[in-house]
Amino acid sequence: MTSATANPATRNNLKTKSRAKKPALRINTQMIPTIAAVVIFICMIIMGQALFGTYTSLGFISSLFIDHAYLIILAVAMTLPVLTGGIDLSIGAIVAICGVVGMTLLNQGVNSWLVIVVMLLIGLAFGAIAGTLIEEFNMQPFIATLSTMFLARGIAAMISTDSLIAPENNNYGWIATTIKIIDNPKIKNDLSINAGVIIAAIVVAGGYILLHKTRTGRTIYAIGGSRSSAELMGLPVKRTQRIIYLTSGTLAALAAIVYTANIGSAKNTVGVGWELDAVASVVIGGTIVTGGFGYVLGSVIGALVRSTIDPLTSDFGVPSEWTTIVVGLMILIFVVLQRAVTAVGKKE
Amino acid sequence: MTDKQPIVVMKGITIEFPGVKALDGVDLTLYPGEVHALMGENGAGKSTMIKALTGVYKINAGTILVEGRPQTFNGTLDAQNAGIATVYQEVNLCTNLSIGENVMLGHEARGPLGINWKKTHEEARKYLAQMGLDHLDSHAPLSSISIAMQQLVAIARAMVIDAKVLILDEPTSSLDANEVQDLFKIMRKVRDSGVAILFVSHFLDQIYEITDRLTILRNGKFIKEVMTRDTPRDELIGMMIGKSAAELSQIGAKKERRAAKAGEKPIVSVKGLGKKGDINPADLDIYSGEVVGFAGLLGSGRTELGRLLYGADKPDSGTYELNGKQVAIGDPYTALKNKIAYSTENRRDEGIIGDLTVRENILIALQATRGMFKPIPKKEADEIVDKYMKELNVRPADPNKLIKNLSGGNQQKVLIARWLATHPELLILDEPTRGIDIGAKAEIQQVVLDLAAEGMGVVFISSELEEVVRLSDDIEVMKDRHKIAEIDNDDTVSQQTIVETIANTNVNGKEA
Amino acid sequence: MATAKRGNNAGTGIAARFDARKLLGNNLTWSVVALVILIALCTIFDPSHEFLSLHWNKNTGGLSGPLITMLQESARYLMIATGMTLVISTAGIDLSVGSVMAVSGAAAMQLLTSGMNVWAAILISLLIGLLLGCINGALVSILGLQPFITTLIMMLAGRGIAKVITSGENTDASRVAGSEPLRWLANGFVFGLPVNFLLALLIVILVGLLCRKTAMGMMIESVGINPEASRMTGIKPKKILFMVYAISGLLAAVAGLFATASVMRVDVSKTGQDLEMYAILAVVIGGTSLLGGKFSLAGSALGAIVIAMIRKTIITLGIDSAATPAFFALVVIVICVMQAPKIHNLGAEMKRRRALKAQAKAVAA
Fold this sequence. Notes:
The structure holds 3 protein chains of 3 kinds.
Chain A: H1 2-6, H2 32-52, H3 58-83, H4 91-107, H5 112-136, H6 141-159, E1 164-165, E2 178-182, E3 191-194, H7 195-213, H8 215-225, H9 227-232, H10 237-263, E4 265-266, H11 274-284, H12 296-315, H13 323-347
Antiparallel strand pairs in A: 1-4, 2-3
Chain B: E1 8-17, E2 20-30, E3 35-39, H1 46-53, E4 61-66, E5 69-71, H2 76-81, E6 84-87, H3 99-104, E7 110-111, E8 114-115, H4 117-130, H5 147-160, E9 165-169, H6 177-192, E10 196-200, H7 204-210, E11 213-218, E12 221-227, H8 233-241, E13 268-275, E14 279-286, E15 291-295, H9 302-310, E16 317-322, E17 325-326, H10 332-337, E18 340-343, H11 347-351, H12 358-370, H13 378-391, H14 408-420, E19 426-430, H15 438-453, E20 457-461, H16 465-471, E21 474-479, E22 482-488, H17 495-504
Chain C: H1 2-6, H2 12-25, H3 27-45, E1 55-57, E2 62-64, H4 66-89, H5 97-113, H6 118-141, H7 147-165, H8 180-187, E3 189-190, E4 193-194, H9 195-213, H10 216-225, H11 227-232, H12 237-261, H13 275-285, H14 297-316, H15 324-339, H16 341-344, H17 346-364
Antiparallel strand pairs in C: 1-2, 3-4
Helix pairs in contact in C: 3-14, 3-15, 4-9, 4-12, 4-13, 4-14, 5-6, 5-7, 5-12, 6-7, 6-12, 8-12, 13-14, 14-15
């Protein structure tokens, strides 16, 4: 029941006179793009299963989540600014700087918990800079976060341009240690997760609570609907904007922790273009780039779709030059399909 | 009332924008339990004064006392915390959220698990019920209800914060007569509970019906504070305009009905023009030199028919004849090419192009009909801009000002200038006098009559029956998306005739 | 200036101050200031102390010196910033310009090595850029997709197309005979100045004339400010949208030719990389809002030159190439912060607060 009450858009009130004639199970048009994303994701998995036979195996599902926990976190991070009609281009670069700083500190023997705190603080700091530039100096979010993206990438490169490998015997790798839930004789049928996946799940739940259960979350939607209205309604627009970029920066740092723990190394070029993957995930999940409509859970589906495109293209044997074309085309087909579905839904 | 302590005292308020003094030492005092009107022409400084009190604009000089304590508002939140709630002229709500959420936004009921949506919507329904809106589904998106309804929802929202002062900036401009009465009922209730209401409206009847006290502004300056019941109308108008009442050129007399010539062909003749869901098929003939009024309530289809005539929406049935020739008008470009122009009722969203200058706003439609790469020669453009700005008395008379910085009435004049510059044979004016002051209103009404006298066909759409009856030759009466009657507007026809027609005719054109 | 003149009766002092405020608020001012400071920095800290020197190079028939190479590099930024300005004015964005550069560059190099006539190769690569721009335009205007997403897709796909054209190789056409005209376009000199810079300037001026001498500029702005109101005036917003993306694609192709012809080699993954970001920065520095509406081509052109100058400064000052993005970010942040109205009104705001505080005290007393 929580999900139904939490989301006014999904609820259908039967008591009212004006709506009494409409069918009882009326789906709000705002939900259609997200539902379309779920349907298409299921279709992709079914197609993969039918052609290659591995896509519904527990092993595939496990690795989908374990390998892409970072992307799910980034997709949640990106959802907040996009809901207000903004964007955070700096998240990929924040992953890089946090990764480089974190690995450097670990190699110097710093306690891994302290390292994690430092990484989170770095993300927080870049979020704070972006928020200040946007709210105090009227910079557009695109430009402000583009600047912090360059800044973070530049500083990361100044610290080190080498591939930094996490030292042995550190207390950092626990995040990546897989926990087997279903142990099968065949590895590909194991269902396993790791702390990274759990962190991602907590982030998703947190994002959901923030957006649907707090006043700050509702202010985010209000800003996306109309910033000037939100201001005239006396909502704390400036404070909310700052919270948004602080959160996206910190979540990017969290993604860096999950990712670097998983692969055990970091380089200053890590995360190039991840902000675009995150935007693609958010959009596939049904959030509109101009703001006001969208759901965190949609972004998670979007991240899963984005992550499934890669194994699909490689299983289809697409030559390497063609991969980005195919990825582009698939996102295009996706967006067009969504638009068609939405248009039909609105007519009904 | 003098024995009461004022809630708000504003003294010597001055607000400067680069190059202009929008307010110059204005005073305003609000007492609890009274309805106080801020009176003045467009551009007198009413909106600026309201924005000073609500924390939108920062004041350059002066003091604001709320319950005796000096206040410096650095934003709308400060003003709200001081107990000042506002409903603005342009509804400022979020159309992407539900009705109930808009009412409660920022004041949602919270439990240990965050926002308690069930309780929040219950409370929203309680406030909506106070406004007589208990039929609304608080879960439905705000975009699913009319602008008039949204206005009432905004007032419901204002009641959520336990306000001491309620500011209503032109709340009635998009309401019909019944809705206005409903609103007044609510206003009286709120007033009697000890709240001070600051009310702005261009409708003098409403001012005299609901207000207790008036503060009059002119050109950003304080003129006088008076009691409503002690002030005759002509004196009030005189103070607002700065002229004595006798000087006002009123065109109070009803237009003489245009005599039809034998064998005359209409400019526009449509048969069965309609669009599913918007307006049922309607027939209509418009002759040169004729003013055709569209009368009907909000949502009766009067705007929809006007839009179909212009091709703003594509009709899905009917034939369209222009000077005896069959045409297909499916988009505004084709309409303008065929000498048909339409001035929208939705000035902000479909009319003005805010960041362009007055000059560009006047020329843009003519330019679009000529084509992007055939610029209007500078000399011709200057002449057109100069001519229409003078004819329509656009203030300020600077063509290089951005149109968004003009008052509503002057924006409307610029838009009419835009359509006149295309030399239309048929001009459709949808609510051209809504939300503008008496002076500009009279000017625009006169323009309508002059244009018809010059031989233009004019469609005049308005929610004010009085002006429809006064200006039209023929009146098309609309109801529930049907054209239900066509009335030859002679001396026997009055507002009452129209009201009775709407009340007594059902949509099939038969007596109800 | 008209406003200042009218202010004269209020005393010349006020008029002068008003002008200063206007100057501070003008975006062009801060671009020029940034340019001057960067040049000064280079002049002072250049290890060889020859930053401002200009020599006549007999081999190339033109001037040579650090400033000249800066202008040569700026040509490509000028091109993409111009297209980007028009797109941004319609409240859109074109993230694909960098990839389109790679595609047109790859096409030109590949066609040259396959033995095609140089002019035909140039023409075909320009047409390919135009085509990609038209696809963007069609998706945005006809299908109504969001510009950000549409051009993001083209950005991804464009890189792939460039790789497909060259089969993944970084095609080198430096040894192809008969390619001199293209080489001259990128590296040659006329009147002692670089051809590509002059050509880029000429194109900017042509686009500027097209926008301001016809109604194109006004209509683009109008669609960016209020598409529905524009439609009601008889403008066809879809046509305008299609057109600006097409122009942006074509100009990106020109930039791609400049970028590849200077070394006669395309790097399918590096050519044009990040350049969409540079173009957007140039436009914003130039004073056009990302929200659409009024645009300034002159501002964007100046912004493009500032971008080229920042890159030149980084090289001249010997800043570690790793730190390049950070330096870049700092300059951009400083320029944008200086442009913020908050900074210009700081003095007035403090005065206002003091005055109000005094009045409040007087009332309280």
